[in-house]
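Let us walk through a complete example step by step. Step one is to write down the protein sequence. Step two is to encode the small molecule, NAP, as a SMILES string so that its atoms and bonds are unambiguous. Step three, shown after the inputs, is the structure prediction itself.
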Amino acid sequence: MKAVVIRKHGGPEVLSYENIQDPKPKKGQVIIKVNYCAVNHLDIWVRNGLSGRKVSFPHILGCDVCGTLTHDFGNFKKGEKVVVYPAIKSKTPRVSFTIIGGFGEYKGGYAEFIQVPRENIIKKPVWFSDAEASTLNVSYLIAWNMLERSNCKKGNTILIWGANSGVGSAAILLAKAKGINVITVVSDSKKARLAKKLGADFIINRNKSDVITEVLRHTKNDGVDAVIDHVGAKTWPVSIETLKVGGRMLACGTTTGAEARINIRTFYSKEAQIIGAYLGSKSQLVSLYRFMKLKKIRPIIDSAFNLKDVRMAHKKMESSNQFGKIILKI
Ligand SMILES: NC(=O)c1ccc[n+]([C@@H]2O[C@H](COP(=O)([O-])OP(=O)(O)OC[C@H]3O[C@@H](n4cnc5c(N)ncnc54)[C@H](OP(=O)(O)O)[C@@H]3O)[C@@H](O)[C@H]2O)c1
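Step three: the predicted structure of the complex.
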């Protein structure tokens, strides 16, 4: 089969488009012909490598897959469209998941075929195209999980970093559909215009204004009920500062680094909570699909690349030149 393989960690140049052997069927697993695989920031982490995290080379990236079953099993029929729930219970103590195509042994969806455990298959919801269905199982799932755990109700206000990111754009769409007021942060005027189109109520250009000042001005000095922070080290201190008394910060990412300096006094004196979020459950994924159908939400797709052009897709994400999801057509 055609696949994009990495044999060592490094820049986009380590992504090698080549012919490799098809996966050999293993007990308890199914083989799927991949139709689309979305690009996620995790793919960049795995490609670059992270200290203390292992992959077995040659490795195949890609955790967000929509495809077609190659065999019957159980109630599933050969030729049926499916999506892959990407989380597998971790063997590492005190870590919840291993992610297919992430760090660990499972090869991902940058390939014509992928092999995954049977329990990770979900029938593709008919109301999404294959391309759309490949974008929901990571960014949209984590955004949905964080919104649920934020405990935000209709009329509450949430701060969402990075309107153009996969996670940020998903969180804005889902939060607005739940009736939550959204403040979001962008880095230029083009991204601000697109954030407005998504429905964000108040948009801060972080290169022109101070985020804390603007959030406090907009909330009449109250602060926000919750913050969705996927950016990490650079934004944690700001996120905590903008929370109201009893506010919740949902943390899922470390795009700008994993070690933040925060003011602990600020944190406890407002009785804030920091809540870590890692993907979400399979049942949350199914409830997300239903919610999106009910609210007629379509995921935001920035661009589609052919698998052989994967290096361009990675470069686009690394330069943060996207608005919404980047996907690979296999
Ligand atoms: N825990 C989980 O289960 C889970 C699931 C999915 C993703 N994640 C993590 O969440 C993060 C986002 O993923 P993604 O796929 O959505 O990434 P992405 O599409 O590449 O977006 C990255 C975002 O970070 C913003 N950003 C970069 N530097 C910034 C700074 N100094 N201040 C403010 N914003 C900054 C960018 O905004 P500009 O373009 O304006 O610079 C952009 O919106 C990644 O770290 C990823 O690993 C975690």
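Step four is interpretation. The two ends are 11 Å apart (CA to CA).
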